[in-house]
Amino acid sequence: MKKALLLFLYPIMLLPEGSAYAQADSSQIMKDAQAALASGDYDKAFTGYHAAAGNDHNALAQFSLGLFYQNGWGRAVDQATACEWFEKAAQGGIPAAQHLTGACLEEGAHRAPDLAQAAIWYQKAAQAGHLHSYCHLGNLYMTGNGVSKDPGKALALCHPAAQQGSIPAQIWLGKFYLQGDPSVQDMRQAYRWFEIAAQKQAPEAFYYLGIILHKGLVEGHTPEKTRQMFEQAAGRKFVPAYFQAGKHFYHAEPDPQTNQLSAEHLAKAYLWLSAAIQRSRNPEEIRTAKEMLQQILVVMPETWLAELDQKVAQHLQED
User: Fold this and answer.
1) How far, in Å, CA of 115 to CA of 106, rounded?
2) Cα–Cα distance for residue pair 83/65, rounded to 1 Å
3) What pLDDT band is residue 127 in, cutting at 50, 70 and 90?
4) pTM (predicted TM-score)
5) 75 — alpha (psi -120 to 50), left (phi > 0) or beta?
6) Among residues 211, 152, 209, which one has the least CA distance to residue 185?
7) Could you tell me if 16 and 128 are in contact, meaning their C-beta atoms sit under 8 angstroms apart?
């Protein structure tokens, strides 16, 4: 996973067109740092990137340092420091850093929130090729934060990126149609865009398909299909789906012969509710999951516990 991410960080698309930093990336110090990061030697990699960032003001090195603090590579996660490095790299013309700087300013991660400046950075990133930045900018227009509210413009900004195949843009567009300004809500369009993203195995897309089906917002709603969508999202480690999957298996239709949950539904309810208890950050979800789990343990054979707990642990372990 980390090596795959590393390979993603260095395509030429991350560099501004014609940037002098494209050549700086090939310098020996950057090569050594990249090799160290690929091998998992975080201290050596950090030292190299830090030297390049400080001595040469290398924007790609600055961006990499931000990722160290964002992802906790060999040090504690520090979002404020990550954002400071991202902003330096953004000023050096790195599109991904420009996008992340917009997010930092929107969230107020390293200084007071500044949504107008966030909009500017999203615009810069989008124009430099970071396509789904248009959707983040669109979200500001959808809500009227930092810019004048214009739901129609929000859709217009995001739609081309979604059409070009950007999965994040497709999910954003689905969200706009699902829960954006009432003037643009369209459940069929929401379902369509989430379905397109789900075909590319996007976990969040499966989750929102489950939400739409559960609420009966489109035709074709069945409890079985709803459970399937939430389980697809949960199986791909989308944490908000754990509770929803567990809850829907817990409330599944009983076996007509025993008037009890089937063995399969009982086991899946236990698995996903256990995962929710360990990963959810929603206190109400955790409380409800624990209550359901207590009821499950009353009827579930004790001999199942060791195997099911092992499956939960295997699923939750880091990649």
Assistant:
1) 5
2) 10
3) very high
4) 0.85
5) beta
6) 152
7) yes
Q: How far apart are CA 273 and CA 162, in angstroms?
A: 33
Tokens of 88: 């330096």
* Per-residue pLDDT reduced to its tens digit, 267-298: 999 999 999 999 999 999 999 999 999 999 99
Q: Which two tokens stand for residue 7?
A: 């390979």
200-222 pLDDT tens trace: 999 999 999 999 999 999 987 89
Q: Which two tokens stand for residue 211?
A: 């939400």
The residue count for the chain: 319
Instruction: Return the axis-axis angle of helices 42-55 and 59-71, rounded to nearest 10°.
Output: 140
Task: Provide, for the chain, the percentages of residues in helix, strand and coil under a 3-state DSSP scheme, each rounded to the nearest 5.
Answer: 70, 0, 30
Instruction: Quickly list H helices, 199-304.
Output: 203-214, 223-235, 240-250, 263-279, 283-299
- Among residues 53, 56, 33, the alpha carbon closest in space to that of 45 is found at 33
- Long-range CB pairs of 199-202 (<8 Å, 24+ gap) are 200/167, 201/236, 202/167, 202/170, 202/171
